[in-house]
């Protein structure tokens, strides 16, 4: 049975085997729900590995993201002051497994954080290290029907975060994405339509990796609802200075450089659950 499952999930882009459990305590979050007071578990945070406990979870499963024959259709455009990637139609990609167990979360949108100068553009940190870029894939729980409604529930949203680090050379897997965002700027179009697999092949290797942190937190823009299960990957993708400069050169509808969604400052850890998979 295990061999059959392994072959199946490999075609759906899954992670590798889980890390051994430390303590194997089923009373820990996320195995059991936990209530938090207002403003207790805000995001982003500085993820310190010394505060994390290891848990034994199944692999996180991705559906309709990177398979060429059924990758979901997306819209890439400029919205107000930011670059915005969203689901295009009613057929959605989704994630399940891992800290989500059997619950399904549907893809809604993506946010990409970078800075107009300097080397740090991420919202989160790991062991006090910031990163050049942070990509956040936002999902909502299927039974809540849509993103706006899901924000009202403590388990309504799951956000997957990937970090980018500067490299000496271009990341060739990012070329289609860079061409797309440049074409929006040059032609003056508000958006282009494409598939997730076409423009985000540079994330697939990270999605296969099983080293990530999970914690309960909040959305990082007002009103900062505490409704998010955050999944933050340790490994990084590469991006060159030239590719970063392309993002920094993008101009919003107000004539000012895009800075993506405004980064929120690091929030107190407040002794919340933090697990490592």
Automatic annotation (TrEMBL):
<keyword id="KW-0732">Signal</keyword>
<dbReference type="InterPro" id="IPR001148">
    <property type="entry name" value="CA_dom"/>
</dbReference>
<protein>
    <recommendedName>
        <fullName>Alpha-carbonic anhydrase domain-containing protein</fullName>
    </recommendedName>
</protein>
<dbReference type="Pfam" id="PF00194">
    <property type="entry name" value="Carb_anhydrase"/>
</dbReference>
<feature type="signal peptide">
    <location>
        <begin position="1"/>
        <end position="23"/>
    </location>
</feature>
<dbReference type="GO" id="GO:0004089">
    <property type="term" value="F:carbonate dehydratase activity"/>
</dbReference>
<dbReference type="InterPro" id="IPR036398">
    <property type="entry name" value="CA_dom_sf"/>
</dbReference>
<dbReference type="InterPro" id="IPR023561">
    <property type="entry name" value="Carbonic_anhydrase_a-class"/>
</dbReference>
<dbReference type="GO" id="GO:0005737">
    <property type="term" value="C:cytoplasm"/>
</dbReference>
<feature type="domain" description="Alpha-carbonic anhydrase">
    <location>
        <begin position="17"/>
        <end position="277"/>
    </location>
</feature>
<dbReference type="GO" id="GO:0008270">
    <property type="term" value="F:zinc ion binding"/>
</dbReference>
<comment type="similarity">
    <text>Belongs to the alpha-carbonic anhydrase family.</text>
</comment>
């Amino acid at each position: 049975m295990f061999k059959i499952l392994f072959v199946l999930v490999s075609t759906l882009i899954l992670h590798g085997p889980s890390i051994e459990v430390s303590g194997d305590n089923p009373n820990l979050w996320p195995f059991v729900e936990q209530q938090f007071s207002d403003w207790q578990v805000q995001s982003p945070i500085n993820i310190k590995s010394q505060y994390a406990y290891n848990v034994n979870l199944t692999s996180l499963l991705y559906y309709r993201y990177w398979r060429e024959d059924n990758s979901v259709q997306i819209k890439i455009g400029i919205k107000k002051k930011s670059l915005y990637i969203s689901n295009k139609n009613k057929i959605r990609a989704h994630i399940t497994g891992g800290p989500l167990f059997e619950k399904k979360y549907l893809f809604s949108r993506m946010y990409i954080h970078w800075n107009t100068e300097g080397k740090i553009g991420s919202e989160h940190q790991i062991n006090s290290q910031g990163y050049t870029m942070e990509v956040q894939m936002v999902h909502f729980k299927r039974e809540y029907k849509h993103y706006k409604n899901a924000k009202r529930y403590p388990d309504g949203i799951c956000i997957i975060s990937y970090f980018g680090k500067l490299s000496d050379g271009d990341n060739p897997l990012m070329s289609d994405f860079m061409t797309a965002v440049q074409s929006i700027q040059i032609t003056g179009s508000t958006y282009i339509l494409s598939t997730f697999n076409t423009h985000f092949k540079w994330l697939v290797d990270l999605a296969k990796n099983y080293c990530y942190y999970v914690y309960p937190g909040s959305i990082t823009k007002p009103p900062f609802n505490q409704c998010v299960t955050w999944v933050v990957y340790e490994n990084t993708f590469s991006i060159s200075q030239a590719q970063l400069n392309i993002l920094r050169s993008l101009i919003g509808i107000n004539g000012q450089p895009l800075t993506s969604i405004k980064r929120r400052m690091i929030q107190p850890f407040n002794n919340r659950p933090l697990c490592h998979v």
